[in-house]
Amino acid sequence: MVDGSSVIDVFIEAINTREAGARTALLRRSLTADVVFWGPLGRRVGRQAVEDFITEVVQGHPAGPCRFSRTTGVDAPEEWARFGWRFEGGDGVPLLTGMDVVHLTPRGAIDQIVVFAGTLN
After folding, report:
1. What is the DSSP letter of 64?
2. 3-state class of 65 per DSSP?
3. Contact assessment for residue 45 and residue 34, using Cβ atoms and an 8 Å cutoff
4. Distance between CA atoms of 72 and 77, rounded to whole angstroms?
């Protein structure tokens, strides 16, 4: 079984990496080329689409430089995993929290990401 925590932490490192080449390398280690990303702004397909989202929405946020962090352990029954997260501005103030659910391939990469942003009422 794949260690979901490791690949998720590589993905989070990619989100927080400001240097484009290093971010691309980390995304190659953590995501499949055809990853499906269900985010707050809709569905995107492909590693490049996820990288564009990170560059535009996360790295380009007006409260930047922003930081994304995992706030819970990784719950990974079989090939599915979930974890809580926090997105905070450069001053450390939380901007958004939520939970992601990811699907892990047998080789240890993420091929699906579903983002649940905000609290559930």
Report:
1. P
2. coil
3. yes
4. 15
Nearest Cα residue to 55 out of 103, 111, 17: 17
CATH level 3 topology of 4-117: Nuclear Transport Factor 2; Chain: A, (3.10.450)
Phi, psi for residue 67 in degrees, rounded to 5? -135, 140
> Along the 121 residues of the chain, how does pLDDT read in single tens digits?
456 789 999 999 999 999 999 999 999 999 999 999 998 889 999 999 999 999 988 888 887 788 999 999 999 988 999 999 999 998 889 999 999 999 999 999 999 999 999 877 6
Q: Which amino acid is at 32?
A: T
Query: What residues does each domain of the chain span?
Result: 4-117
C-alpha R_g of the chain:
13
Q: How far apart are CA 112 and CA 102, in angstroms?
A: 5
Pull the structure tokens for residue 43: 């569905």
